C-alpha cells in the first residue's frame, strides 16, 4: 500500500527546515511577491532561497512544490509567467497553479514540470477535474474544503489523478479563490494581499470590559471578559440572524482530521496537507511531527488506530480559538 504523503507549509527557510526535520514527505512554498496567496511582508522565498530550500529538502528525500496560486493581474501579468519559468528552472517537484492561462503556459512551455491544480481553482467534481486533466495534464488536484470523506471516496473512484486534501489548519469554508466577503470591508483582494483579513485592517477594542474585533471597521465579534478571541475573519464572525447572535457561517476552530484519519486515507487521497505558510516554524514543526506520528501509527495497524488525546491537545494549542473542527469532512453545511 502506498503511504499517504505528509505535506507541510514553508513560509521561509527556517519553517522549511522544521518541516523536513519533523518528518514531512513534501513541502510547499511560494515566491516573495503577489504570485502566491500568502504574500506577507517578510515571508516567502527569493529564487536563491528557493535553491537552498530545495537542496535541503532533496538531501533529506523530501519533495518541494512551488505555489503559484493567485491570478495574473490585467495591468501586468508578466510576474506570473516569470514565476512559472523560475519554478521550472528550479526543477521543483511540482508547481501548484489555479489560473487557466498559467496552466496552459506551463503545460506547453515546461511539459516536464508536474502540475498540481490549486485549491484556488475550486475543482470539486469529476467533470471539472477531468477538464483540467484533459487540457493541462494535471497530475494532482488539491480539493476545496467543501467535501465529506464519503464524497472524496466517490470522487476518487471516478478520476485518475492524485487527490490532495487539507488535514490541519485554518479553515476557509467557501469555494476557495472565489470568496470576496472580506473585499467589501477591506477594499482589497483576498487573493493577492496574502490573506483575506490583512493585519492592517484588523482592530481589537476594549469596550465596557468586552473585547470587540473589527475588520475594515466592521464589527466581526464581541467576546465576554476572559473568553478566547479569534483573529477576525468574516466567515467566522458572530453575527445576528433571526434574533440570535452566533457563528452564522463557521466556528473559528482549526480543521483537524486526526479523529477520522482512517476514513480520509481510505477514501484514496495521496497527500495530507497542513495549512499555514504564514505561521511560525514552531507551528510547522509541531503540526508536522504530530501528523507524521498519526500517519505512521495508522499504517502500523490500521484497525487499531486512535487519535491520541496528547496529539489533539498539542494541536489545539496551535489552533485558532484553541479548538478544532472536522469542517465539512463530517458536518453538513450550515
Ligand atoms: S472570509 Fe472565510 S471563506 Fe472567505 S476567504 Fe476568508 S477564510 Fe475563506
Q: Top keywords for this entry?
A:
334 residues, alpha/beta, TIM Barrel, eight-stranded parallel beta barrel, binds iron/sulfur cluster
In short:
By secondary structure, the chain is an alpha/beta fold.
Outline the structure in words.
- 31% of the residues lie in helices and 21% in strands.
- The chain is an alpha/beta fold.
- It folds into two domains: 5-173 and 253-329, TIM Barrel (Alpha-Beta Barrel), CATH 3.20.20.70; 183-247, no CATH class.
- Strands 1-2-3-4-5-6-7-14 form an eight-stranded parallel β-barrel, surrounded by six helices. Strands 8-9-10 form a three-stranded antiparallel β-sheet, with no helix packed on it.
- Helix 1 (13-21) links the parallel strand 1 (5-9) and strand 2.
- Helix 1 (13-21) packs parallel to helix 2 (47-59) and helix 1 runs parallel beside helix 9 (281-300).
- The longest helix is centred in the last third of the chain and has 20 residues, at 281-300.
- The structure holds iron/sulfur cluster (SF4).
Amino acid at each position: 500500500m502506498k503511504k499517504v504523503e505528509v505535506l507541510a507549509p514553508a513560509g521561509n527557510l527556517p519553517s522549511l527546515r522544521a518541516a523536513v526535520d519533523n518528518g514531512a514527505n513534501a513541502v510547499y512554498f511560494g515566491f516573495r511577491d503577489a504570485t502566491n496567496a500568502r504574500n506577507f511582508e517578510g515571508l516567502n522565498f527569493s529564487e536563491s532561497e528557493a535553491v537552498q530550500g530545495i537542496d535541503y529538502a532533496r538531501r533529506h528525500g523530501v519533495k518541494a512544490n512551488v505555489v503559484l496560486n493567485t491570478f495574473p493581474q490585467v495591468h501586468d501579468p508578466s510576474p506570473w509567467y516569470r514565476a512559472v519559468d523560475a519554478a521550472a528552472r528550479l526543477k521543483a517537484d511540482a508547481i501548484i497553479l489555479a489560473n487557466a492561462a498559467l496552466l496552459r503556459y506551463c503545460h506547453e512551455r515546461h511539459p516536464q514540470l508536474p502540475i498540481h491544480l490549486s485549491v484556488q481553482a475550486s475543482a470539486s467534481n469529476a467533470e471539472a477535474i477531468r477538464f483540467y486533466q484533459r487540457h493541462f495534464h494535471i497530475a494532482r488536484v488539491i480539493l476545496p474544503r467543501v467535501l465529506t470523506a464519503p464524497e472524496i471516496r466517490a470522487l476518487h473512484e471516478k478520476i485518475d489523478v492524485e487527490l490532495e486534501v487539507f488535514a490541519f489548519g485554518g479553515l476557509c469554508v467557501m469555494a476557495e479563490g472565489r470568496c470576496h466577503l472580506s473585499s467589501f470591508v477591506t477594499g482589497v483582494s483576498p487573493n493577492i494581499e496574502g490573506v483575506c483579513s490583512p493585519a492592517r485592517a484588523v482592530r481589537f477594542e476594549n469596550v465596557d470590559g468586552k473585547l470587540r474585533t473589527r475588520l475594515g471597521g466592521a464589527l466581526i465579534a464581541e467576546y465576554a471578559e476572559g473568553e478566547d478571541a479569534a483573529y477576525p475573519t468574516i466567515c467566522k464572525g458572530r453575527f445576528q440572524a433571526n434574533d440570535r447572535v452566533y457563528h452564522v457561517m463557521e466556528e473559528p476552530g482549526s480543521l483537524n482530521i486526526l479523529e477520522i484519519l482512517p476514513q480520509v486515507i481510505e477514501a484514496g487521497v495521496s497527500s495530507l496537507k497542513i495549512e499555514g505558510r504564514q505561521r511560525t516554524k514552531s507551528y510547522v514543526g509541531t503540526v508536522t511531527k504530530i501528523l507524521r506520528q498519526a500517519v505512521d501509527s495508522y499504517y502500523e495497524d490500521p484497525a487499531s488506530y486512535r487519535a491520541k488525546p496528547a496529539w489533539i491537545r498539542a494541536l489545539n494549542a496551535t489552533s485558532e480559538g484553541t479548538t478544532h473542527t472536522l469542517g465539512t469532512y463530517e458536518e453538513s453545511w450550515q
